[in-house]
Amino acid sequence: MTALFALATSLLWGLADFGGGLLTRRLPALTVVVVSQTIAAAVLGAIVAATGGWSEAGPRLWFAFAAGLAGPVAMISFYKALALGPMGVVSPLATLSVAVPVGVGLLLGERPGLVQVAGIAVAVVGVVLAGGPQRGGAAVQRQAIVLTLIAALGFGAVFALIAEASTTVTGLFLALFVQRLTNVAAGGVALYASVKRGAEALPEGRFPWASLPALGFVGLADVAANGTYSVAAQHGPVTVAAVLASLYPVVTALAARGVLRERLRGVQAAGAGLALVGTLLLATG
């Protein structure tokens, strides 16, 4: 069951990130996050009301609140990075999010084994190769690499927090609802501040009604992925769940190759692949 739900997480997150990256090419990233998460919050609110999820309220919801603060930072950074592209390089770098549990362990006094040390080295080399200067073709902007690493840190935090936010199915719905409300509030404040500085919240001042189905899909796929990951982490080894769920960027990269016909140079593909290998070593070492 753990493997099944974790792989479902990879599929859902990968498709949500691909859709979010595409939308960010024509809409501000903050707008994509706020609108998509508002749709998800509305749906979750109805589910919580129907299932009596409010009865599960307790101290664990603080984990959901914290995840709600980290989520918008990660999503906005990642969507901007995907919009800068190429997605086939940017998305695999996000697998470094699994390094967050390793960092927490170090702070608590744990020391990495040889496999984890090797994973760190391989991942760093992968980042350098994927984002370094190359000849010909579409280079990866340094900004895209920085944004992706910020997103990886944020996603890793969400991984850890959402797994602790509930112990029951109805409690999970409530935790995800609280997380989404926090996402919308945090993203809304950031969007308001951005508009006050002169940025546009909507293209040409009009709501993108034609993009509403895609925005809804991004929000609902993202929240479903959080749910399936929580179930995976609660019903089996967290390491296994994290490793399999962290493969979501591969889905994004494959979607970009299939839909956008992206072509990667050899060194970029090698770098992205090394980042993925390094992440798996980190999580399994």
UniProtKB/TrEMBL annotation:
Top-rank taxon, per record: Bacteria
Domain EamA: residue ranges: 3-130, 144-283
Gene3D superfamilies: 1.10.3730.20
Pfam family of the protein (one): EamA
Family: Belongs to the EamA transporter family.
Organism: Streptomyces gilvifuscus
TM stretches of this protein: 28-49, 61-82, 113-132, 144-163, 169-195, 207-232, 238-260, 267-284
Record PANTHER family: ACYL-MALONYL CONDENSING ENZYME-RELATED (PTHR22911)
Key words, A-Z: Membrane, Transmembrane, Transmembrane helix
The name this protein goes by in its record: DMT family transporter
